[in-house]
Amino acid sequence: MRTIEYKAGKVRYVNRQVRECTFMMTPPVKRKDIQMRSLFKTNVVKFMMSVAVALLLSMALMGTVGTVHAATSGGNASQLITRITIGLNADCSSVPNTPQAHAILTQHHLCGYGKSGPDTIVYGNCGSLSIYLYDHGGGYLQWRGEITSSLGPFVNAQYNGDLDNDTTGQFGSVSRNSGVVFTSDWLDIFPRYTPHSQMYGDIYFAKDLLWWGLTCTSNGYVWSSVYVR
Questions:
Q1: Rg for the chain, CA atoms, rounded
Q2: Which of 8, 40, 165, 208 has its CA 20 to 30 A from that of 68?
Q3: What percent of the chain has pLDDT over 90?
Q4: CA–CA gap between residue 35 and residue 140 (Å, rounded)
Q5: How many Cα atoms are found within 13 Å in the side-chain-facing hemisphere of 137?
Q6: Residue 169 and residue 171: Cα distance in Å, rounded?
Q7: Residue 147: what are its φ and ψ, rounded to 5°?
Q8: Which SS3 state, helix, strand or coil, does residue 64 take?
Q9: Where do the domains of the chain lie, and which CATH numbers do they carry?
Q10: How far is Cα of residue 173 from the mean position of the Cα atoms in its chain?
Q11: How many other C-beta atoms lie within 10 A of the C-beta of residue 152?
Q12: Angle CA(136)–CA(188)–CA(214) in degrees, nearest 5?
C-alpha cells in the first residue's frame, strides 16, 4: 500500500519498493517577487558585461606585451643585441693624381681640396664600418660586418678582427675580404655554432678601395657582444 504525504511544499511517496522520492511543488509567485527577480537579473547582466569588458582589455594588453616579447626574444628569430658604427676616413696619402679624383675631393672638401690647396691634408669621413652579432637561435651566432662608402662604389673591401668565447675562454681571429666587387655597401655574414656561450666580436682595422683610386680606412674599432642560447 502506498501513502502520499504533503509537507512544506513537498510530496513524499512511501511504499515497499521506493523508500523516498521527493520533488518540489512550485509555490505561488507574487508580483513583488517578479520585480525583485527582474532587478536581480538586470544587475547580474550588467556585472557580467563589465567582467567581460575587463577580461577583453586584459587579454589585449597581454597580447601586446607578448608580441613585443616574442619579437625580441621568442622562438628562433634573430635578435639584434649591440651594433656599433664608426666612420671611415679618406687616406689622403693615397690620392690619385687624376681629374676625377681631384673633382670628387674638391666637391666633398677632402684632403685639402676645395679649401686651402691640395697639399693640405684634411681627413674626412668617406664611409662607415659596423659590426653586429645576432643570437640566431639553435646555438648559432651570426656575425655581420659591414662597410659602406659615401664617395661612390668601391672595388674591394677588407677587415680584420676578433671573435672570442668569454664562456670557454677560447679566442679566435677574423680576417675577411670582399674580393672584386663594385658596390657602396658590403655586408659580410657568416654563422658560428657556439651554444650557451657569451660571445664577443670586434673589428680593429678595415679599409676599402674606391673605384676612382682613393683608399678609405678605419680610425678606431667597433665591437659587439651577445649571449648565444
A1: 39
A2: 165
A3: 52
A4: 70
A5: 8
A6: 6
A7: -125, 130
A8: helix
A9: 79-228 (2.60.40)
A10: 27
A11: 15
A12: 155
Q: So what's the pLDDT on residue 111?
A: 86
CB hemisphere CA count around 91 (13 angstroms): 15
Interacting residues of 47 by C-beta distance below 8 A, sequence separation 6+: none
At 206 the pLDDT is 98
193: cell is 655554432
CB-based contacts of 28, cutoff 8 Å, min separation 6: none
List the one residue out of 39, 215, 202 whose CA is nearest residue 127.
215
Return the higher-pLDDT residue of 193 and 111: 193
Q: Rounded to whole angstroms, how far apart are CA atoms 205 and 217?
A: 8
> Which of 106-129 are b and which e, b meaning 16 or more Cβ less than 10 Å from the residue's Cβ?
eebebbbbbeeebeeeeebbbbbb
Cβ atoms of 182 and 155 within 8 Å: the answer is yes
Average pLDDT, the chain: 74
Residue 129, helix vs strand vs coil: strand
Among 3-12, 115-124, 143-152, 184-193, which stretch is predicted with the lowest mean pLDDT?
3-12
Average pLDDT over residues 184-189: 98
41-50, 56-65, 79-88, 144-153: segment of lowest average pLDDT: 56-65
> Strand (E) positions, the chain?
3-7, 10-14, 79-90, 125-137, 140-149, 154-165, 170-177, 185-193, 197-210, 215-218, 222-228
